[in-house]
Backbone:
């Protein structure tokens, strides 16, 4: 569920994608608001540890107490550090660096997701912290020292020119580039008046975070970390291939290799029923429903094969008859004729002879003698008619 003025919880979606490749992911939130949406999504799991440094009390969204530490498998995997108004760079880093050092030590993540909300900067319209641009960026620098894969995201921020300053500076931090404090002239140059500088000075405001309060909250969070038995392990599992990530544009001037074809991911819509489909059964038909057009096409093929087989059998029979006739031509035994074979057949069917008219029989025999090639089919027709009359 999205929260914090967001309609899509893109951070949770990103972490879910990272969990396909990383056993453990730590989420760090330095926005002034509590990261309630991300915490709630992973409140019951031990594969994601959420750490939020935010303003506590009745400040929106009103969640993120020290006692909120996760449940069931996720117990002690949600850490919250609520702060009071006016926290400055020195106080912030006294609790941020020791806490994150122990988190990395105990949880042993293989990836870090850092949300760099700029509303914790001094002078924000809704925020009430007093961090400088450099103090905010030092959080990014410190997490980079662990040499782990990092996904760095934006977040809140309601003084737009300071948001642009912050993320430009922290982009330079990520790239190891030293940016000039003088903002170069551009179409938005007047937005940064009257200083026209990259860095802003902290405000003159009281810091209500006493050293005793900061140390007590930090000690409580470290106690939670000591309760972790060990870094949770994950069994080996298949990682689904992502066509958006793994696909690379092919060179039209080069032949596609077998490895490239194997790496391609078929879309689910590419599966279809067709006569050439691999799911065809042994008879040439499909394994789907009987009213499929491919089934009827297969049935037509089967019928044509049956007709072809019938004509082939008739041709073989005529060839055998011719061979028998030539074999007995020189002998005293008179070879049987078609009329003799039909007479013999009629003698074995007395009930049919009694009911059949003699003219029908004689005409059939005469027709058989005149056209010997069609004798088998005509004889079959004569027998069928006698069966119908009986």
Residues:
């Amino acid at each position: 569920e999205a929260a914090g003025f967001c309609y899509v919880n893109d951070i949770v979606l990103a972490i879910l994608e990272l969990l396909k490749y990383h056993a453990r992911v730590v989420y760090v939130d330095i926005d002034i608001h509590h990261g309630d949406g991300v915490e709630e999504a992973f409140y019951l799991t031990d594969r994601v540890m959420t750490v939020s440094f935010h303003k506590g009390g009745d400040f929106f969204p009103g969640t993120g107490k020290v006692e909120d530490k996760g449940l069931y498998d996720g117990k002690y995997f949600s850490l919250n550090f609520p702060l009071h108004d006016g926290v400055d760079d020195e106080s912030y880093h006294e609790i941020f660096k020791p806490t994150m050092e122990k988190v990395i030590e105990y949880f042993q993540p293989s990836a870090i997701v850092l949300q760099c909300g700029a509303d914790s900067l001094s002078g924000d319209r809704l925020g009430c912290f007093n961090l400088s641009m450099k103090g905010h960026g030092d959080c990014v620098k410190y997490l980079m020292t662990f040499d782990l894969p990092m996904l760095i995201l934006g977040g809140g921020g309601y003084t737009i020119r300071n948001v642009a300053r912050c993320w430009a500076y922290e982009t330079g931090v990520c790239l190891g580039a030293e940016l000039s404090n003088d903002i170069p002239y551009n179409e938005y140059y007047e937005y940064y008046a009257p200083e026209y500088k990259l860095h802003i000075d902290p405000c003159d405001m009281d810091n209500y975070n006493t050293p005793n309060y900061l140390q007590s909250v930090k000690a409580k969070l470290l106690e939670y970390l000591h309760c972790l038995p060990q870094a949770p392990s994950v069994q080996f599992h298949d990682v689904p291939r992502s066509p958006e990530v793994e696909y690379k544009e092919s060179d039209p001037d080069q032949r596609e290799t077998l490895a490239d074809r194997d790496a391609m991911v078929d879309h689910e819509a590419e599966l279809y029923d067709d006569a050439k489909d691999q799911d065809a059964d042994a008879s040439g038909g499909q394994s789907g429903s009987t009213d499929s057009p491919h089934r009827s096409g297969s049935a037509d093929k089967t019928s044509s094969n049956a007709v072809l087989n019938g004509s082939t059998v008739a041709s073989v029979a005529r060839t055998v008859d011719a061979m028998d006739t030539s074999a007995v031509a020189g002998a005293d035994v008179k070879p049987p004729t078609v009329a003799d074979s039909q007479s013999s057949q009629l003698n074995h069917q007395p009930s049919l002879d009694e009911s059949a008219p003699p003219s029908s029989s004689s005409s059939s025999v005469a027709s058989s003698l005149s056209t010997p090639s069609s004798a088998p089919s005509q004889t079959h027709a004569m027998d069928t008619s006698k069966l119908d009359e009986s």
